[in-house]
Every structure is written in structure tokens, then in C-alpha cells.
Amino acid sequence: MTWEVLSIIGTVAFAISGAIVAMEEEYDLLGVYILGIVTAFGGGAVRNLLIGVPVSALWEQGPLFLVALVSMTIVYLFPKQMLPPWKRWGNFFDALGLSAFAIQGALYAVKMGHPLSAVIVAAVLTGSGGGIIRDVLAGRKPLVLHAEIYAVWAILAGLAIGLKWAESPVELYVLFIAVAALRILSYAYGWKLPRRAVGEKAKGQT
Amino acid sequence: MTWEVLSIIGTVAFAISGAIVAMEEEYDLLGVYILGIVTAFGGGAVRNLLIGVPVSALWEQGPLFLVALVSMTIVYLFPKQMLPPWKRWGNFFDALGLSAFAIQGALYAVKMGHPLSAVIVAAVLTGSGGGIIRDVLAGRKPLVLHAEIYAVWAILAGLAIGLKWAESPVELYVLFIAVAALRILSYAYGWKLPRRAVGEKAKGQT
Amino acid sequence: MTWEVLSIIGTVAFAISGAIVAMEEEYDLLGVYILGIVTAFGGGAVRNLLIGVPVSALWEQGPLFLVALVSMTIVYLFPKQMLPPWKRWGNFFDALGLSAFAIQGALYAVKMGHPLSAVIVAAVLTGSGGGIIRDVLAGRKPLVLHAEIYAVWAILAGLAIGLKWAESPVELYVLFIAVAALRILSYAYGWKLPRRAVGEKAKGQT
Hints:
InterPro entries (chains A, B, C): Gly_transporter (IPR005115)
Transmembrane segments (chains A, B, C): 6-23, 30-50, 62-79, 91-110, 116-137, 149-166, 172-191
Membrane topology (chains A, B, C): Multi-pass membrane protein
Distance between the termini of chain A: 50 Å
Oligomer: homotrimer
Mean pLDDT of chain A: 81
Pfam families (chains A, B, C): Gly_transporter
Family (chains A, B, C): Belongs to the UPF0126 family.
Number of domains of chain A: 1
Number of helices of chain A: 9
Number of strands of chain A: 0
Order of helices and strands of chain A: HHHHHHHHH
């Protein structure tokens, strides 16, 4: 049950975030749908590939697919007056998708008896897979690699699940909300990780 | 039989289209071959991944691989006097590849008993997979996401096959020619889908 | 045994090369780790996909994963005074990774009884897979497609193994060193393959 709820939230959130990025890049109507779907199901496809479930299991998600289509259509038809805060909304949905899929990836890795390090990697790659595919297809550098603290929260989800801090459905939902909230806060307040630039770019720009 | 013919057409067409894009991007001789091969077999790899056939089935396509190599060599050695219409030729071969692989993807999804929505998605993703990989590796935004009506024709192929409008080999060939022709016409006449840009880019550029 | 040694070398080399590219692109601390890991294990994931081993076999590489983490941490904490030759070091590690994974890919294709053409393709795609993923995620055009002679050395590895010139562990290590050295020499001396640019870019820039 928790698994299905997280699937729905993650898929819808990434579908919307993909649609918003496609509109920002001036892609056409179908570009919006395709980028949304690839973002939404790309996360799941990466997860399936990484945990050894056939990618073709995606086809069994007919209802989820319809939900994604409806979500993207609503976003596409959103009234113009409500447009300005797109970027914030894009980040909001990206945060939900990250949190939902990071928890799913970690849960699966635990179920398959993997060690803690693998649980954390599964959380990070599953949570950020959809967003990475979205950004690459939009011709952008993946958000997860350079943005405000991002992957840290996926790691937190992996830790919480790998160390059995969160196991019951209620605990998982609390974890989901906490991870999403931390991601949103880190965006809102511009929390950053240290970075260490080298080479030409660093010389030229800093 | 029809399946093999479509495989050959799609592979050759995407190999040539990849080679042309690589030359446009000033990639070197091997870059041309690699981008051509990745484009040609990337479409098939995406199809295999999506429909649950092992990607390693690619290795059984030795003859197809030779055909792709020969096609790319011919393109690479093409006399200079005939160069100007490259862009048109690139689009021509891209259209053939799109049509051939979209039909293949849809046929496979039907054979596996998937519902209509999955047939359409299979047609779109299989038909555009090779081109998306090509564009990403060339550092471009994927044509399918922003170009003239593109995915619409793949959707049409999915519909025609999912609704059993085209089943016999003759019908499938007619469908193949129709989809490729529509894609070429939409390029020649600049048919476009509506697009709705938001955010900074829209403000800055339009 | 040889297989494990090549795995370790390839993984460490690509992890470091990914970390260096991430620092050049000013990615943050976690961006450095993620790009390094994706580069290191992306090569293996592409290899697994192409040769039909489940991608999830990656999770059994716990020790390899730790080795990659330690390597990236060392690179990240490297003293500033030793920074200037980053680009050269990046190419050095890229060359080691290319050589190690190209030989692995070719060995596997031979073991599975594939023909020579498939052995060569396996060497090229396995050897360059990690680097291609790295460059795409860094928003760069893949080095393998346009750089100095690059794929030629992977093809050489494929030929040497496909034609049974190198079979014993000693021969394989010699081949590994030779391929890496040729790649480094081709970078140092700027050996290039012919390229044939067409279209707008060629007109505009040359």
C-alpha cells in the first residue's frame, strides 16, 4: 500500500516537473508530454534496471500512466495568471518525486538484502534518475549534480531505511514528508554544499 | 519477413542520420561510425529494454551491423558536390528510421497483449529512442521534443497498429510509407504543434 | 584474477576521471561523488546490459564501491599546489579506464562466442560507455566522439583479443598497458583522425 502511494506521488510529481521543464525550454505540446512521461517513468526504469526487475514491468502501470497524462494536461492548461511561480512549483514537484523514489529505491534494496552502502546508492540513483534524464533531455546540466543540497536528502532517506529508523507505513510517510520538506527548504534558503572548482572555468569565472 | 525489412530500413536510416549529425558536429571519422552505430542500434536497444527482450540480443544482428557500416561509409565518402542538401537528407533518413521503429515497437507491444495506451507509448519511445540518443550525444536538444510535428506520426503508427487498421505485410508497408511521408511533409512545410513557453526563456526571447 | 584487477583499475580510473570533470564543471561535493560513481559503474552497467548480465549484478561490488569512494575522496582533498595538471591527470585516468574496460568487454564477448565484429563493438562501447555517460552528465560533447584518436585504441584491444593475440594474463596486462599508453601518447602529441565536417558549422567556423 505505502509502495503504491509512493509510486503514484513520485510518478505524478516527476511528470509535472518534466512538463514544467519542457515548457521552460519551449518544447511543443508533445514534447511536454514526452518529457513528462520520460521523467516520470525514467525514475522507475532506472530503479528497475538497478534492482534487477525487468524494465518491461513498466507496461503494467496503465493506471499510473493515465494519472501522469492527466496531471500534465492540467499543468499545460493552467491559467496564465498563475504562471509566475513556475520555477518554485517545478522545484516543489521535483522534491516530491525525489523523496518518493528515493524511499522506494532504498526499500527495495533493503528487501533484497543489500548492505547499507548499496541501500544509500539505490536511494540516490533511484531518487535522482528521473530528474537526471529530464535535465539531459532538456539540454541542461543535471540539477542533482550542482544544485543546492539535493542528494544529501536522498542519502538521508537511504540511511533512515537502511538503519531501520523508518519501517512502518506511518514512519515511511513521515520520512517522505521530511525529505521533501528538507529539499524544499534547502532550495528556499539556498543551502549549499562545499564545492571545489579546478581548471580553466575556475580561473576564468571566479 | 516484414519485421526484418523494417529492421533493416530503420537501422540503415538511423545509422546514416547519426553519421550526418556527427559530420555536422565535426566529429572525427570514428566519431561518425560510433554515433551512427549508437543511433542505429540505440533504437533497437531501447525497444528491447522496453519490451523485455535482453539487450544482448543485439549481438545476433551481425549482418545488420555490416549493412550499417557500409551505409555510413558510403555517406562519409559521398562526393562533395552533392553535399548542400545534408540537412534535408538527415531529416529524410530520420523520418525512415522513426517510421520503421515506431511500427516495430507497436507490433511488439500488440504481440505481447498490451493495451492501446502502451502500444502508443511503445511506438513513440521505440521510434524516437535512436534519435534521442543521437541528439544527446551530439550535444543537441532532442529533435523529437521541440521540432516540427514529429511524435504525432509515431502516435499515428501506434494507433493504426493498436486498433488493427494495419495487420497484413502490405498494410504495414503502406503504413510505413505514410508515416515517413507525413514526417517529411511536416518538415518541408513547417507544420508545428502548439507550444506554450513559460518562465525566463519566454520572457527573454519572445 | 586478471578480470578482477582490470575491474578495479577501470573502476578507480573512471571514478577519478568523473570526479575531476565534476570539479572542472564546478559541481558540488556530492555532485563530484555522484558523477564519479556514475562514470565508474556506468561503464560496467553498459557492459552488463550489452552482454546480457543483469545490471543489478552491480550491487555485488561492495568492495569496488568503497575503493571508488576512497579514490574520489583522495582526489577531492588533493593539495592545491598540485592542481595545475588536472586536465592531464583527467586524461591519464580516462585512458586507464578505457583500456581496462575495453579489454573486459572484448574478453566477455569472446567468452560468449561472438564473432570478431561484435568483439570489437563490445570493446569500443564498454570502454567508452563510462566516459560517454560522464561527458553527457557534465553537459559536454562526449570525448570519444570528437577527441584525438580515442576509439582506435579500443578497437585495437578488441582486435587483439578477438584474434587471440592476447590470451594469458601476462599478455592481457601488456595489452592493457599498451592501449593505455597509446591513448596517452595520442593525447600528448595530438594525433588526430581525419574528420569531414559538413553543413552550417563547417561553413561558419572553418
